[in-house]
Amino acid sequence: MALRIVEQAGRTDVGRQRSANEDTFLVEPPFFAVADGMGGAKAGEVASAMAAHAFEGERDSDEAAEAQLVRILREANRRIYDLAVSDESHRGMGTTLTAAKVVGDEVSLGHVGDSRAYRMRDGELEQLTKDHSLVAELERSGQITAEAAEHHPQRSIITRALGPEPDVEVDTYTLTGRDGDLFLLCSDGLTSMISDGEVSSILRSANSLDAAADELVRAANQSGGKDNITVVLFRLGAAGDDGAPAEDETIAGQLSAAEVKAASALDEPTDPHPGPKATAVKAPPRRRRRVRLGAVVKGLVVLAILAGVVTGLYALSRQVYFIGTNDAGLVTLYRGVPYELPLGVELYEEEYPSGVPARAIPDRRRQRVLDHEWRSREDAVDLIRALERGQLAG
């Protein structure tokens, strides 16, 4: 059965805690992409835009899809790296990039960083890409559980991106599509705020991809909106007898990346984070309910146990230390345990940031140093000092 893109949508939002949007998305069939820039507003925004612009003029290529995606991502990496090296104001900039190309009934992906690609098929959501992040590597190696990874303080530290190095390794995948397959590309501003289960529920219940994109952004903001939020959605369906593209596909194909981003911004409501409208409903007469004493006692016992657990975790956090990285990517000594409780309660605090960038440590040693092992303060300080003296650089 011949397939085509029958529906598509893209949204980006600054979130509730950032002053600038460093994300960029691309909706130009057969290409779709999400890029999440880093390095500050004037650098990260430039890097992500450069990554999207690398797809210009690529629509008519006869190159194999995976080979083309690798070439495009590596070319984007080279351009970003060259600018970062030559211009002090862009020093240290980079970006993630997760891109898809649709050719017939095949969808090929090119991926660097922790922006993700998902597929929903028959109501089941599946993550297609593997995060290039420190926490994901710790989880894959069995050093931490999936539950611990969700609340890990270093979950935003990525291990691969476009721009920091002169060359980059690109992950590629090709999947055979089916009628009704729905694909989602997104930045971690979505997946760090809501679970895969919530994403799946929104995609299943929305009556259009535009509505789904709006609801995904709204849900991420309602959960805190700690980062920029970007989503790109497209659905495959059976082509008509003439195999002609859908009307909205043709229109989107005529827009540049900047125009698509601007158009989506114009479509957003004046209130960037609207909630559901309240409807007045007359409440039915309330009946008095009997509460059994045993239920009350059980509830109090559960609360007492939870209070004890929290108290114990807090006491432990005052006695141990671990080594991680701060927001600037520097190796840092933390006091506490590397976890967060619900409602954003952190069980750690920054004690001492070193002057050593994590990416300056060779790969074979980085994982050992940044393993978040609980240490005494003396052991942790000794390791930090050894790094600063260059004793672990080899």
Describe the structure.
With 394 residues, the protein is of the alpha+beta class. The chain has 2 domains: 3-267, PPM-type phosphatase domain (Phosphatase 2c, domain 1, 4-Layer Sandwich), CATH 3.60.40; 317-388, no CATH class. The protein has 12 helices and 14 strands. The strands form 3 sheets. Strands 2, 3, 4, 5, 6 and 9 form a 6-stranded antiparallel β-sheet that branches. A hairpin with a 2-residue loop joins strand 7 and strand 8. Helix 1 (41-53) runs antiparallel to helix 2 (65-86) and helix 6 runs antiparallel to helix 7. 37% of the residues are buried.
Largest sheet: 6 strands, antiparallel
Radius of gyration: 24 Å
Helical segment tally?
Answer: 12
Mean pLDDT: 81
User: What percent of residues are in strands?
Assistant: 25-35%
CATH third-level topology of the largest domain:
Phosphatase 2c, domain 1
Can you tell me the number of structural domains? 2
CATH class of the largest domain: Alpha Beta
Separation of the first and last Cα atoms: 55 Å
What structural category characterises the helix and strand content? alpha+beta
User: What overall form do the CA principal axes indicate?
Assistant: globular
CATH H level, superfamily name of the largest domain: PPM-type phosphatase domain
Task: Summarize the helix and strand pattern as letters.
Answer: EEEHHEEEEEHHEEHHHEHHHEEEHH
For the record, the CATH architecture of the largest domain stands as 4-Layer Sandwich
Helix content class: 25-40%
